[in-house]
Amino acid sequence: MDADLKELQKKLDGAVDFFKKEIQTLRTGRPSLSLLENIKVSYYGNPSSVDKVASLNIMDNRIIVISPWDQKVIPEIEKAIMAANIGLTPQNDGKVIRITVPPMTEERRKQMVKLLKKMAEDAKIAVRNIRRDGNDDLKKRKSDGVIQEDRLKKLQDELQKMTDQTVHKIDEQTQKKEQEIMTT
């Protein structure tokens, strides 16, 4: 594989990895600590992720328990969870915060699937942008005399195959996550 195509493959793989990480935050019917992954809490004036200021556990397959190391941060954690607008309501007893993850309604499942499909489309757009930039670079290299016409065509075909494979991976992840959302 051409050195430039290796670099493009890294970018394509990075787009898939970002997409996988992003869809982990989508809520399914069961609690997942990844729901809280992107929530930032103001901790002594510094934005910190929830898992940096508290321990997180799942209890009874329906409840996320957040045990802050410093009790003073409880209101900040509650505020951050509410501001994240992920459909979860924190309840605190002064020592820990409990979040009961209710079963998802059919309407909420459909909303999650719609959001999933938008995320997938955004990931595919990122992949197509990587392909476009790669093609532009290959054409520039041809016009600069670095590569010949037949080599350009071969590299463009290879780049298209890489793009198709990456889009297929995104589609597979989307299908898997949609199944998870609709059945749990």
TrEMBL record:
Its main location: cytoplasm. Keywords: Coiled coil, Cytoplasm, Protein biosynthesis. GO terms for molecular function: ribosomal large subunit binding. GO terms for cellular component: cytoplasm. It is found in: Cytoplasm. Belongs to the RRF family. This is Ribosome-recycling factor.
